[in-house]
Design a protein that fits this description.
The structure is a single chain. This protein is of the alpha+beta class and 337 residues long. Strands 7, 8, 10, 11, 12, 13, 14 and 16 form an 8-stranded antiparallel β-sheet that branches. Strands 1-3-2-5-6 form a 5-stranded mixed β-sheet. Strands 4-17 form a two-stranded parallel sheet.
Length: 337
């Protein structure tokens, strides 16, 4: 009997993602020749590597489960996606049995070697993603829905990271040395955080690939612990933040002052985790439904300095309405098939 699970609905798929540490998914269609060709190899991998609540193999019929296909922007068949703790860590487009086998077996070996305790929590694994604080029950990390091509960041120091740096899935490098500073030999250009430039204010425009319901923001800010630094040169953590939803573009600083925010937040020292330097900001959920973009405006920092620093941003919530599914095309067919 096949161990592969045929996905029957979007909620069924979400349930599988939440109950299995690794989920391997075959997006296919009955009319797709390459899908049929690789199906026996996929079944063989499923029979060999399936583990209850650890590794689950699934199949999604893109003709019947269009909502699931739209969620993950499936435009080519077959497409294989591997999820680890509900996050996409690998995508394989086309009927490539060798690549599929290599990726799946590697993840299966990691799952077996790491065991049931602390699976996916290793900070050295970029694929697993790093979290500075726990996810609220019933919600998922939707940071992968950020359209990084449309990010816009105002008043950032060019000697540090870019807007994309904020959404990197890796653990901030500054947490490794515990000083909030670059590792030895790390240049200004490779510092993986953002600092403000002329003053403590920062404006960030975050467009999304699909409409979201945003529940929580995780903000990581690793400040230096060198007490001998002068106040003006020591970056601060954000204190006052204003959020605006569904703006078409980044706001100017003066423009933002004239527009009522969707929510204003004042962070207190106790809001920051002492180990991960991360604050969990729970939003007024009813005001953050059907969100296609966010503008995050940092008004000031938590001290007397002139610079504010942010290392990472995570967005937690639910995926809502999605972009239209593009035309599906087969990969791997010979001409004329």
């Amino acid at each position: 009997m096949s161990k592969t699970v045929l996905v029957s609905s979007a909620s069924h798929f979400n349930q599988l993602l939440s109950t299995s540490k690794i989920v391997v998914t075959d997006f296919y269609a009955d009319w797709c020749g390459p899908c049929k060709a690789i199906a026996p190899i996929y079944e063989q991998l499923s029979a060999q590597l399936s583990r209850p609540q650890k590794i689950t193999f699934t199949k999604v019929d893109t003709e019947r489960q269009k909502e699931v296909a739209q969620t993950y922007n499936i435009t080519s068949l077959p497409t294989f996606m591997i999820f680890k703790h509900q996050r996409v860590v690998s995508t394989i487009r086309g009927a490539d049995p060798r690549k599929l086998s290599e990726v799946v077996k590697k993840l299966a070996a990691e799952a077996d070697s790491e065991g049931s305790g602390g699976f996916g929590d290793s900070s050295s694994s970029a694929d697993a993603g790093w979290f500075g604080t726990s996810l609220p029950k019933g919600y998922e990390d939707v940071t992968d829905q950020v359209d990084v091509r449309g990010l816009d960041l105002l008043n950032s120091d060019s000697n540090f990271g870019t807007a994309r740096t904020l959404f990197d899935s890796s653990k901030p490098s500054a947490l490794a040395n515990g000083k909030g500073e670059a590792s030895s030999g790390q240049s200004e250009k490779t510092k993986d955080w953002v600092e403000t430039d002329t003053d403590e204010q920062l404006m960030l425009f975050i467009p999304f690939q699909s409409t979201l319901k945003v529940h929580t923001l995780h903000i990581t800010s690793v400040t230096p612990k060198d007490t001998e630094s002068e106040a003006d040169d020591t970056p601060m953590r954000p204190k006052t933040i204003q959020l605006y939803t569904n703006r078409a573009h980044v706001l100017g600083f003066e423009e933002a002052e004239d527009i009522p925010p969707t929510q204003a937040i004042t962070l207190q020292p106790q809001d920051w985790d002492s180990t991960t330097a991360t604050a969990k900001i729970e939003l007024r959920y009813v005001k953050f439904q059907n969100v296609s973009s966010l503008v995050l405006f940092v008004l000031d920092g938590d001290g007397d300095g002139e610079r504010v620093r942010i290392d990472r941003l995570r967005i937690v919530g639910e995926k809502g309405s999605l972009r239209e599914l593009g035309k599906l095309e087969k990969i791997g067919d010979e001409a004329g098939e």
